[in-house]
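Blinded run. Sample ID left blank on purpose so nobody reads anything into the name before looking at the predicted structure. Input follows.
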Amino acid sequence: MTVLRHLPASFCLAVILSLAPAKAADLNPVAVAYKLPAQIPWQDNPSNPGVKSAILQGDPSKPGLYVQLVKWLPGNMSRPHFHPNDRFITVISGTWWVGTGETFDPASTVPMPAGTFVTHYGKQIHYDGAKEGETILQIVGEGPATSTPAEKR
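Blinded prediction complete.
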């Protein structure tokens, strides 16, 4: 302690400030673009109230690459359907339940826990959704990302 008494106050202040957390550097927007979770624009799905989505890149309704987040609310599943192009899906959180075929049978779905990577092949029939908890997926695909019903009744 006696050493600190003999140091100039400005030096002591400089040492204390250097130990404080630094202000985050500004990123060059030409090099990096980002959205924090609170800035991601989730939208309700008018045709399925149990699903919300957020477009991160591109436009799924138009030709070209798109990236979107899809949030399945608990207890919601799609009916058998297919898409025209392959879709590459990563389960971000929760458990996503996936089934195949024309007959809707939620009991036969297979759980895909967070971290799982899934490919839905174009023109192949599947159904999916969330059972007990909310599930968030990241989907990457080639638009237009239409969905064609394919349930056998």
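Unblinding after everyone has recorded impressions. Residues 45 and 52 are 6 Å apart (CA to CA).
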